[in-house]
Structure formats: structure tokens, C-alpha cells
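Hi W.,

Here's what went into the run:
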Amino acid sequence: MTTVAFAVLAVIAVVAAYRVFRVDSMARASFALAVSFVAVGGVLLLLDLDYLGVVVVVMMVMEMSIMAVFMIMYMMNPAGLMPMSMWHDKGRAMSIAVGTFVVLAAGAVLVDWPQRQGPPAPDVTRQLGLGIMGAKMLVMLGVSAVILVTIVAALVLGAARGRYDRLGDDLKGRPADPVPGGVGR
Amino acid sequence: MPDVLLVPVALLALAVLATASATGDRALLVHASGRPPRLAAISVLPEVARLLVQRRRTTTAPDALLWRVGGGGLLVVAALMIAVVPIGGRAVLDNPVGIVWFNAMDVLLWALVWLLGWGASSAAALVAGYRYLAQALAYELPLMFALIPPAVVARSLDVEAVVASQSGRWNVVEMPVAFGVFLLCVVAFSFAGPLSAPAGSDVAGGVLAEVSGVDRLVVLAGRHALLAAGAAFAVPVFLGGDAGPLLPGWLWQLAKTLAVLAVLVVVRRRLPLLRPERFAEVGWVLLVPLTLAQVLVTTVLALAAS
Amino acid sequence: MGLTERLLSAAATRPHVLLVPVPGRSDLRWAVEDWLDAQGWPQAASPAGADLLIECGTPAVELAERADAAWDALPGPRDRARVRQPDEVDAVLSAARSRLLDGPRQRQDAQERGVPVVAEPSGDMDPGGMDMGGMDDGGMDMGGMDMGGMDMGGMDMDLPGGLTMAGRVEDRDGLRLEGLPVRFGPLLPDWPAGLELQTTLSGDVLIDSRCRWLDPSDGPVPDRAVVPGPAAALDALSRLLAVAGWQDGARRARRARAEAGSGPATDDLLRRLRRTRLLRWSLRGLPAPEGRDLTEHLNLLIACVDSSSSRLPVATLHELDQAVTGLDVAGAVLVVAAYGPVLFRERVDA
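Here's what came out:
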């Protein structure tokens, strides 16, 4: 039963990923990618990694929605009404792609994975977390906060209009935005 | 494995609650017009009959697959949301991460409503789809932060554990801000009432501008079903599930769900439309710090109590 | 068949109505709206949601074309009627409803429509011209074709339906993104009668705007109903409140309008309006006629209802163009709802 479910999800993931490069419409490409990721999330659910599986779905669907917005904003033929090809430098790209796939698949299939000793832990996600991060858990939590701060700082540095443009040189004026926000800041 | 026997019960509950939401809306409308609220006036059967009889339509070069997936997906997401609500102690999906599952389902709406707007091949619908994403960016973080305090108190993401942790005191007493923000976000993800800009009449109905017939019925029913599923989820997470003296558990749960649904229906009707760009600042500058503060307070209290 | 007839009769309990307001005949529009409120028939926001197309008066050439396009976009079962006098509203609308119940008539209408003809795609098509809804085609007041549930096959896959690629314009952030020519037509709900707003949308921001009256006339069109006074201010209020999303408030304003500004409905409305803070917050920051903020404009309308010492402002199309440029769609439609009732229909030069 689990094997059947895994096979179905795996096929969906691979086929959807292939379709990303074959469809002409940007919206379909983004959401084919989303379907592929959701299938991978389903596979994680089959591995009893419930939290990771569901979080993968959350992150990927959100990202694909925002990505679809940007793709439609910037690309010239977003609905794919004119057929176009998304393939560039076909020869070299194909050989690299196929080569990588063969190497990874060989690794997944041929490596002598260790067998589980005894029953699985009651909380597989926790075991996985401890296994990967171990005694350095606090450091990892701190790193995630630092990453968030870096993202915010990059946005502040990269924005075309900063505080001084919006509020005046003494930072005391009312915000001069093209569209005023709801709180007046 | 999903509990197959509970599936029809859960779907029936969802249908009843969605109908209650639609009927409540009509009752408020009839009352506000000054007419007596007779059954014939507040029933939604004429609307359903009208949409069943109406012909479907399409536009030039729509993306039909994505359009119909977007429309039909609303009901599917509502059903998946109610699948983690314990009915009589058990939920359809016995998911150890029920709270995050609910969050994942409302994130699926980002994709579905945008597809509903994109697939219609119409400027009105496309603008409305983008409005939904703009609103979603504003309410999603507060929603996620509002769902953390119940999990902290219960030390688990399982909805049934959250219900069990409220045997002493209901969560809404301890974390009222989280409850209020959660209700606002339920109204937001079902793009109802003050946050119904994606279906606003200023863009000729938005995502509803080009759908008619059965397709329109599916989208409208989906909106009511999402509101109902959100109300149903609020009960085990914030209002103690089926706890209550004297009456059987399921009756208490139904009563509480209907009470929450009534609040949402009234809010939906009473408040004027909030434009998405005004709501964006409210979401980020007001709601995110508020919910973070709520998480801090709840966590400190939980650590002190243990 | 018994079931179809019964469904039709249940369906026609509360038909949704798409109104075609005719410039100069606000009296008819008011009569129809009051009748619809009394019967509880909702107004549709787009042809896709409508069963009846009701013309409030006799439209002139261009407005009649738009009404015909909307008629084509109504899915079935549908009917169409024209109200010529205020006292025939009841008869006309009841007759239209009974025609909706007529099963054989509706079936014949459906058969006649069948599969519509797809126009030849041409590269230099005027984006505002065709009557098919499409991505760059324009009218937000029009929809697409009614296919009756059938699939759209046999299209020319190279830019089907005669669509053209959108142009590139610079948007307000300095990015070169697509500019979509869109026409906000005369048949949007609570929209000024006979006004058309042509604009280029970049995302949902109006990069530019050109308003025009359909069927331009030689001078101001006298409006039979609009005597300066509380009723006119209440009409303006009802449209502003409806577009601002407070449908109950709009309905109360229409009831107050029916009692000409003095009576229990008016007092009730004014009391609620003075109390509401959320509405004022949501209207803040948008331009209104005579240089006011939209919140101040709301207060002015309330003052006009309350006493005869305040008067409604006056505005021109050019001012509306300037006010709307640079706003996003939601804000723009709100601003048009504020300007609409007070637009001075100036003389058109050739």
C-alpha cells in the first residue's frame, strides 16, 4: 500500500517537473512545479515525517504563487498563446542533466543503506532533527534568526526609496507614498 | 489512514454549516431591508436553483484547466480543512500535525484563487486574483503566529492534544488576541465581507466576473464552506472542542461552531470593504507585532506554569 | 418537463438585474432601484451574474451598443426590457420576470445562440473595439461569449480570438512592464450614467486616463430628477457607499432618497454615518471634487442632506482624469463614484 502510494507520488513528481519545461504558459509552468513539490511533500508524509511534509507544501505553494506573479510580470508571453521553447543550449544542458540524474539515481539505488534496528522512534521528526543538528540545536536556531535579519536588511538596503525619501530629511514628515498605507506610517 | 466512516459525517457537517452561513447572510440582508424574515425570503434554495438553471459561459482563450481547478478547489480545500477537526473525539485525518495541516490548506488558497483570476482571461478577474495575493501576504504571517500559542500550551501540534490541554481553561481566555486574529484571518482567506476585494463589485465582481451557472455556484459555495471550516476549526483549537457540562459533547461542539459562525456572518455583513493596500500596512505593522507579543506572553506563562 | 419548470420558477424568484442607466433619466433609475429594493432583487455586478437587462430609459447610439454587448454576454435564461415611464416600472419588470419563467421561450433563445462565430484574428485590431472579452480587449463591463457549456474548439492557435500582445509602458516604480488598455465601461454597478473611462493598466495601477461621455451632446444634459437638494445628495451617498462596500448603508441611503431627505430612514442613515469610523478610515487619502479628501467629501454630502445651506460640489472630466491617474483600480473606482454625481456635462467641441 505504501509502496503503491510512493510509486504514484514519485511518478507525479517527475512528470510534473518535466511538464514545467514543456508547457508554454508561465502560470502552468509555475503550478506544474508546485504540483511536483507537493508530491515530494506527500512522499515525506509517507516517511512519517509529518511536520516536514506539511511544511514543504506550505512553503512551496506560497513560493510558487509569488513566483507566478513575477513570471507573469516580467515575461513576454505569459499565457503561452504563442508557442515558444524554454530550452537553451540543448546539447550541453541535456548531457549535464542526464549525467547528474544517472549519478544520483545510481547513488540512491546502489548504495548499501543501513537497515533499521528496532522500531522507529515515536517522533521521527524530532529524531531527524537531533540526528542532523545534534548538540548544535541552539546555534541552528540562532542562525535562522540571523538569516531573517539579513533578508530584512538586504531589502532595506536595496529599496529605491528609503526612510529619508519617505519622511523627509528630519524623519518627521508624513510618509509620502504613492499609495498611503492603512496605519499612516 | 483516514477514518472512512467519518468522511460522510464531516462532509454533511460542512454542507450544513455552509448552508447556515449562506442562510444567515440572507437573513441579515432581509432584516436590513426592513422586510419580515420569512422562510421563503431567507432560503438560499432559489439562488441554488437559479445557478443550476443558468448556462455556463467562457471567454476567449481562457486557461480552462487552471480556471476550473481554481474554482472547484475551494470546496476541496474546505473539506480538507474540516478533515482535521475532531468530531466526537476523532477526526477524519488523524494527523499528528493538524494545526500545520490547516495552515497548509489555507496556503493552497493562495494558488487556487489566483488561478481562478488568471484562468478567466479577463482583466477584472486578473486584478482580483492579484488582490487576493496582496491580502494574503498581509494576513498569512499573523495567521501562522496566531496558531502557535495553542500549540505551545498543548506542547503538540495535534488538534486532539490541543483539545485535551483545554480541560482546565479554554484557550480563548488565555490568548484572546490570537483568537481575534484567527477569526479575522478566516474572514480573509474566504475573501468575505471587509476583505472581499477579490470579489468586489468595483472590478465587475472580480473572480466572479466571468463565471456563471454551475461554476459560479461552486465558487460561491466554496466561499461559504471555507468560512464554515474556519469556524469549525476555531472550536477545538480555542474554545475547548466538545467540553461542556450536561449536554453531550457533539451538541456542545455544534453550538459553539454555530456561535462562531454567527459572529463571522455578522462581521461579514456589518463592516465596509477594506482596500487591500490599506490592509497591507495593518497586517504587517499592527497584526504581526501583536501576534508575536501574544506568542511571547503565552510561552512565558506556559513555561512558568510547568 | 415538470422538473425544469419547477427549477425555473424557483430560479426566477429573485432574478439578478443588470441596469443600464441612461443619462438624463435618473428618475427612471431611482424608480427601478426602489422597486428592486422593495422586491429584494439584487443588482448584478457583471453580465455573468445577471438574468435581466433593464434599460432605464431609451439609450442613444453608443450606449445602446454597449447594452447589446452586455445582452450578448448574459448567460441564459435571460430577458431584456426597457422602462420608459416611472409608473410602468412594476408592469415592465413583472413581465420580464414572467418571460424568464417561460421554458419554451428560453429554450428557443438558447438554441438560437448556439455556437457563436469567432472573428478572424487580425494583428492590428483596435483593443477597444471588439465585443469579445479577452485579455487585452478592454471593457470591464463586458464579458466573453456564452458557450452554453460547450468546449471552444477549432481556434487558430496563433493568438486566438484576435488578441494582440500588450504594449510595454513604464510604471510608477520605473520598471518597464506591460500596459493593458482597458475600458471601464458604462455598465459597472453604481457607475455614472453614460461615462466611459479609457485607461492603461500596469498591473492594477492606472497609468493614464481619458474619460469621455458616450454619445457626446452639444451641451449639458438636463437631468429630470436631479434637483439640487437632499435627494441628489442622498443619491450621491448611496453610490459612494455601495462602491465603498457598505451595501446596507447604500440601501438605507436609497430608502432615504425615496422619502426626499426627511423622515425616519434619513435620520437613521445620518446617525449611522456619523458614527462610522471604519468607513472614514478606508476612504482617507483619496482625492475628491474641489480639492477635498474623500472623507471630507463624505462629510459634505452628509451636510447637504442635513441642511440646505451646503451645496454639492461641481467637477469636470479633466479634473476626474487628473484625480484618477496614478491610483489603483479600487481607489480609482471610488474616486469616480465620488465625482460621478457632480460631473458637469460641459459642452463638447466638435
